């Protein structure tokens, strides 16, 4: 059975630190208050931009990552992280934070300034991207810049609006390959990372709002009716498959680069790790699905997602599982983005699509509107309320990447949700 993603149809239209006695582990998180308050201007379009602190300052030479060679497949999810999430395995914590660093680099490399002539492009040359975004000496080398294009067709009057409003194609992330021999030995394989940032441009926001499910073009299904075919959120599919006026789609760029890398390194131990935050988390899942359906001999593909929205229906989840794609979703229970779009089905019977908490007449309407989703993969559930260093629950702050990394750094287990040595990450501030 071969599945493929085809082009989507166009859419019209502080520095204070406190000690809390709980658990005693290592690796404190240190955030400087002035850098949080002064580093970036307070613009509305940056509401969810997480680049206003350095969540990786705790990664010091004194706490170098341990060798994973013998168990690297376990940390990549070959056993679905069984027994590693509660309590959180400390080595897995380090890997999650390490991949979070690649996502942070995608944010820091993006030009958010709408008044800039280089708005929505990568700020740094490819060969210095990681160094200049605060990730020196990773052992990885970026090999491909990635761009996403919106399929939204704008009305003619939009020509009178500022150019940044109608930016249809923008830099969304990059591919990086581990090239350092010592790091390859530590990891037990050569690792390829695809890292995606979250929503940044106006048209990306519009695509996020296209919440109805769309059929994957040319996708086979085990069911005889279209109702049970794999479907994904329309806007995410559009960003992944739409082509700009000149140049390839994000899907085509990913396929081309993965084909090249498999040709170059396919004879050695290899892993593909796709990571992203928010919109980037959704695109990471679509990318993993596409790679596994396009390349029949693809190596182990793992998704590490932070604060991701729902992506597809139950059939889509089942196809992911049959492919062997491993997904670890990092979820903040106080983050509204992880609870949208649509509704999650309840029950194990595919023929009975009961939507949790809804009366039967409304369940039918939800199904007809193509808003019945399913969560995918294994979940590491955290909560902002468990951190003694966060002052209340703020909708935007709960979704920020730095909040997720703070919570991962501090989480111990469901019975001891925050460790004593995790440091204060956020302070009261006006935005």
Automatic annotation (TrEMBL):
Residue ranges annotated for the Fungal lipase-type domain, each copy included: 193-343
Subcellular location: Plastid, Chloroplast
A single Gene Ontology CC term: chloroplast
UniProt record, GO biological process: lipid catabolic process
Chief location: plastid
Top-level lineage group: Eukaryota
Stretches of the chain forming a coiled coil according to its record: none
Any GO MF annotation of the entry: galactolipase activity
Keywords assigned by UniProt, alphabetized: Chloroplast, Hydrolase, Lipid degradation, Lipid metabolism, Plastid, Transit peptide
Family per similarity comment: Belongs to the AB hydrolase superfamily. Lipase family.
Protein name (record): Fungal lipase-type domain-containing protein
Organism classification: Eukaryota, Viridiplantae, Streptophyta, Embryophyta, Tracheophyta
């Amino acid at each position: 059975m071969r599945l493929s993603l085809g082009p989507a149809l166009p859419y019209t239209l502080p520095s204070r630190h406190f000690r809390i006695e709980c658990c005693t582990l290592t690796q404190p998180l240190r955030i400087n208050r002035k850098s949080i308050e002064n580093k970036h201007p307070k613009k509305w379009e940056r509401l969810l931009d997480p680049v206003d602190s350095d969540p990786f300052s705790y990664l010091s030479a004194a706490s170098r990552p341990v060798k994973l060679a013998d168990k690297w497949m376990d940390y990549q999810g070959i056993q679905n992280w069984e027994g590693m999430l509660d309590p959180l395995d400390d080595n897995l914590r380090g890997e999650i934070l390490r991949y979070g660093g690649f996502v942070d680099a995608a944010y820091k490399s993006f030009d958010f300034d709408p008044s800039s002539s280089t708005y929505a492009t990568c700020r740094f040359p490819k060969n210095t991207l990681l160094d200049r975004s605060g990730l020196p000496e990773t052992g990885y080398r970026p090999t491909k810049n990635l761009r996403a294009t919106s399929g939204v067709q704008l009305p003619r009057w939009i020509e009178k609006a500022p150019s940044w409003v109608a930016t249809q194609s923008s830099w969304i992330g990059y591919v990086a390959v581990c090239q350092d021999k010592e790091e390859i030995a530590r990891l037990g394989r050569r690792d390829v990372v695809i890292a995606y940032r979250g929503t940044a441009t106006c048209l990306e926001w519009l695509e996020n709002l296209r919440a109805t499910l769309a059929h994957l073009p040319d996708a086979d299904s085990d069911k005889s009716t279209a109702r049970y075919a794999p479907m994904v959120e329309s806007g995410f599919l559009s960003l992944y498959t739409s082509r700009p006026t000149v140049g390839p789609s994000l899907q085509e760029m990913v396929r081309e680069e993965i084909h090249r890398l498999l040709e170059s390194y396919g004879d050695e131990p290899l892993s593909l790790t796709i990571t992203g935050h928010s919109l980037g988390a959704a695109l990471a899942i679509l990318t993993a699905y596409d790679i596994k359906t396009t390349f029949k001999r693809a190596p182990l593909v793992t998704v590490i997602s932070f604060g991701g929205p729902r992506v597809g229906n139950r059939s889509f989840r089942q196809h992911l599982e049959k492919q062997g794609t491993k997904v670890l979703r990092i979820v903040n229970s106080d983050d509204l983005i992880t609870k949208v779009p649509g509704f999650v089905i309840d029950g194990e019977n595919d023929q009975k699509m009961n939507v949790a908490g809804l009366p039967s007449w409304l369940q039918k309407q939800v199904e007809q509107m193509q808003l019945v989703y399913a969560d995918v993969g294994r979940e590491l559930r955290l909560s902002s309320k468990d951190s003694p260093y966060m002052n209340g629950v703020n909708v935007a702050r709960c979704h920020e990447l730095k909040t997720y990394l703070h919570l991962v750094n501090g989480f111990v287990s469901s019975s001891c949700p925050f460790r004593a040595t995790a440091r204060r990450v956020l302070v009261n501030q006006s935005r």
